[in-house]
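Board notes (copied after class):
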Amino acid sequence: MRIIFTRHGHEDISKDGGMLDKWWGDYIQYGSKDWELIKALQPEDNDAVFDKKRYNAFHGTGLDDSLRSIGVEELIITGVLTNCCCETTARDAFVRDYRVFFVSDATATVNDDLHLATLKNLAFGFAHVMSAEQVCEGLNLLR
C-alpha cells in the first residue's frame, strides 16, 4: 500500500490562494511551523508528499497522474478538516473514478455537526465511510 501525504500552505495567498484568500483571510504560510506535518506522522523515504494550495488534493498538484502511473484505483482518506480538504478531495476522487474509503474516526474538523454532515453526505453518494478498525480489518491488518 502506498501512503501519500498532502500539505496545505501559501507563499502569498493573494497570488496563490484564489477564493481561499477572500473566504478565510489568514492562512498557513508555506514553510512555517503550522505547515509542517505532524511529527508522529512523518513520511518514510518511499512516501510521497504533495504540497497544495486548495482544499482539493488533486487541484494543481499532479496527484492524479502520480496515482494513475502506479495503477491506484482505491483511496483511503484521512486527515483534516473533514468538511473542507478531506471532503473536497473525496468527492473529486469519486468523479475521477477512484473507489473512495473515508475514515470516519481518522478525520476531524471544528465541530461534530460539520463532521457528521460530511460523513452522511459522502456515504450517500461518494465514499464508503468506515472506521479505522473496519479499514484495518478489510486490509487484514488486525488479527
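Comment from the instructor: The mean pLDDT is 93. DSSP finds six helices and five strands in the chain.
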